[in-house]
Structures are given as C-alpha cells and as structure tokens.
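Course assignment 3, question 2. Fill in each field.
Student: A.L.
Task: Predict the tertiary structure for the chain below.
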Amino acid sequence: MTMKIEDKLFLDRFKVDEESHLKIIDGEKCKKCESQACLFLCPAYVYRPEGDRIAINHEGCLECGSCRIGCPDLNIEWKFPKGGYGISHKFG
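Answer field:
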C-alpha cells in the first residue's frame, strides 16, 4: 500500500518558536511580483495572500528552503529555526 503525501506529512512533528525564522524583506516587492512563486513553490503552503500582502505561517514550515531559492527577487530571508525548534521528521 502506498502512502499519500498528506499521510506522510501527518507523521512530522513541530516545536514552534514564537519568533519566525522566515521574513519577507520588502513587502512592496511582493505587491509588484507577477509570479508570486512563494505561494506555489512551498509544499507546506506557508505563504498565503492576505489582502494586499503575503502572510507567513512559519509554524508549518518544512525547512526545505524552496521559498528562498524560488523567489524571483530573492526577497525572503530564510534561516533555520533556533536550536530545539522546528520540524522533526518521523518515518513510518
């Protein structure tokens, strides 16, 4: 039996820090961005449109770095969460 991606993601556990490890450097650049690639590249849907800006839900970040690399303007500051925080992958 093959597991769905949703079932595999359910196995992951998060220890969330109140301080985000993700940051949009310049919100004005996001407003002008035609592709808004961060909305589609992130496998965890961490980025979402909220009014005229892009909101970040850092709590669900898989720490893959896709957003940092895929942003055409390099407008996302990405770093690993502080020690002891972030995702813990469970395989099963």
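Instructor remarks: The first strand starts at residue 13 and ends at 15. The longest helix spans residues 5-10.
Grade: pending
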